[in-house]
Amino acid sequence: MFKRPEDLIAEQQEAEEMAAELEAWLAKEEATEQKNRRGAGYRLLNPVRVQIALLMQRGKTVKDIHRALDEALGIKVDLKTVRKFMVENMPEEYASYLGANKRGKKENRVYQDGSKPAHEELTASPTPAEQEQIDRHLKVKTSPVQRVKTAEISAKKPPLTAGDLRAMTGQLDPEKYRTDD
């Protein structure tokens, strides 16, 4: 049976609408799937690394950087993810950022008891524990590498014989007490 042209047009429009709805649903599912996968935040932040570095150079706080990424670029990630990304993937920029802003300077630190560092602490070189934290943060080792000397060949003991092993374990020698006469 033949269909009227109006019915054909209506069917085609309905099919196009259904295809559009299906595409929208698939895009939404894919976005949700990408958002909930491990490392999704880093994948969103990696392309805007230069903009993050620029904001850090201008002295913006991590909270301001997070808000700028959300409002200006539409990148929705946690504040903790932004900070972790900066620490792990931009260590040099983050170190200079901490050195330039108020939070990273030693003279602006306040201890848990409310006291501030003494003048001696400010002028002294970092303690080994502080230096280790700095090295771990920058992923650089400044301490010299200690090499372990291998033992001399003459200092090595010769391998044990079967008789030595029997004597050590207290076993009897089967050759000595053989009874196949």
Question: Keyphrases for this structure?
Answer:
181 residues; 9 helices; coiled coil
Q: Helical segment tally?
A: 9
SSE succession: HHHHHHHHH
Shape annotation: flat
Instruction: List the uncertain runs.
Output: none
Structural class: mainly alpha
Helical amount among residues, as a percent range? 55-70%
Strand content: under 5%
How would you describe this protein?
It is built from nine helices and no strands. The termini are far apart. By secondary structure, it is mostly helical. The chain is flat, with a radius of gyration of 35 Å. Helix content is 57%, strand content 0%. The mean pLDDT is 77.
Set out the fold topology:
Blueprint: H1 5-35, H2 40-45, H3 49-57, H4 62-73, H5 79-89, H6 91-100, H7 119-123, H8 128-138, H9 162-169
Short description:
This protein is mostly helical and 181 residues long. It has nine helices and no strands.
